[in-house]
Amino acid sequence: MNPALQDLTVRYLEAREAVKSAFRMENDYSFPVAANLYVAANRPVDEQRLLDCKRLIKQDAGIFSNFRSSVLVPLACKLALSDDPQSRWDRTQTNYTILKDFFSRSEYLALAAMLLTDSASDADVPALAARGKALYRRMRTEHPFLTGQEDSVFAVLLAQSDRTDDALIEDMEACYRLLDGRFPKGDGLQSASHVLAMTDGTPERKAGRMIALYDAICNAGGKYGKA
Question: Whole-model pTM?
Answer without folding.
Answer: 0.88
